[in-house]
Amino acid sequence: MRIVRVSVACIFIIITAWAFGADEEPQNLVTNPDFSNGNTGWAFYAGNGAGTWEITTKGGVGDDGPCVFIEVVALDGVNWYQPNLYSSGLVVLDNDEYTLSLWARTEEEMDRDITVTIQRGADPWTRFTQESFTINGEWNEYWMTWAQPEALDNCWIMIHPAGSNAGVSKGLLWIDHIRLYEGEFVEDALSQGEDPVKAVKPTGKLAVTWGEIK
Q1: Are the C-beta atoms of 114 and 105 separated by less than 8 Å?
Q2: Helical H segments across the chain, by residue range
Q3: pLDDT tens sequence across 44-74
Q4: In this predicted model, what pLDDT tens digit does every residue of 9-27 receive, in sequence order?
Q5: Which residue of 47, 50, 107, 111 lies most exposed, with the fewest beta carbons within 10 A?
Q6: Cα–Cα distance, 180 to 10 (Å, whole number)
Q7: For 26-68, what is the HEC assignment?
Q8: Which strands, in side-by-side order, build the sheet including 197-198?
Q9: Please, are residues 148 and 91 in contact by the beta-carbon 8 Å criterion?
Q10: In the prediction, which pLDDT does 46 show?
Q11: What's the CA gap between 183 and 22, in Å, rounded?
Q12: To 5 degrees, how large is the angle CA 77–CA 199–CA 105?
């Protein structure tokens, strides 16, 4: 009888551990996703002096920690991808399904578009997927899932603040807790049960080169 009790107890422990592990956060492939290490793994490009950026010490989503603050101060008028925040820490991807999510907000009582791009971080700058989101004055989580068509050892995550294909517009933007991981969307623990805002899934999109979209 003692042996049976021990066996049952062991099975219960294994099942409990498996169930707990199923709810764990997926492995995040992003370097410094919450900007707690300053600008490590991130860079900012703004041609024609179109924007500025800084890592704030407070004001981030959830824990009031650091986040990125971007101000678009001038109209570029030509390049829709400027200014942009991008991951200088390159990400390695397999030929698999991936999800990218981030938290963002703009000024109170404002709506503004941002565009998120997954692309090769070197010539020919292949763009693998791209989605646009309309953000508002409250922190919300935005996400997209796509099938990566090929293995990639130099992936860039690019976020085009307050941008669209028509160019950029002046304004403010806060970004925090960026995640990139294998598989379908998993709600961030910061959501606290709130519904995340979902972009249209990029089904059937073809890869294009950077030269083709200039």
Answers
A1: no
A2: 2-22, 210-213
A3: 988 767 788 999 999 999 878 999 999 988 7
A4: 444 433 443 343 445 779 9
A5: 111
A6: 35
A7: CCCCCCCCCCCCCCCCCEEECHHHCEEEEEECCCCCCCCCCEE
A8: 51-56, 67-72, 171-182, 97-105, 140-147, 197-198
A9: no
A10: 82
A11: 13
A12: 65
Decide: residue 193, CB within 10 A, 0-12 exposed, 13-18 middle, 19+ buried: exposed
Report the predicted TM-score, pTM, of the whole model to 2 decimal places.
0.79
Ranges of residues in the chain whose predicted pLDDT is under 50 = 1-22, 163-167, 193, 200-214
Helix, strand, coil distribution of the chain in percent, nearest 5 = 15, 40, 45
**In the block, residue with structure tokens 């089904």:** 203
In the chain, what are the domains? 27-213 (2.60.120.260)
Looking at residue 101, what is its pLDDT?
95
* Residue corresponding to tokens 């422990």: 13
DSSP helix/strand/coil, 142: strand
**Tokens 């989101």 identify what position?**
133
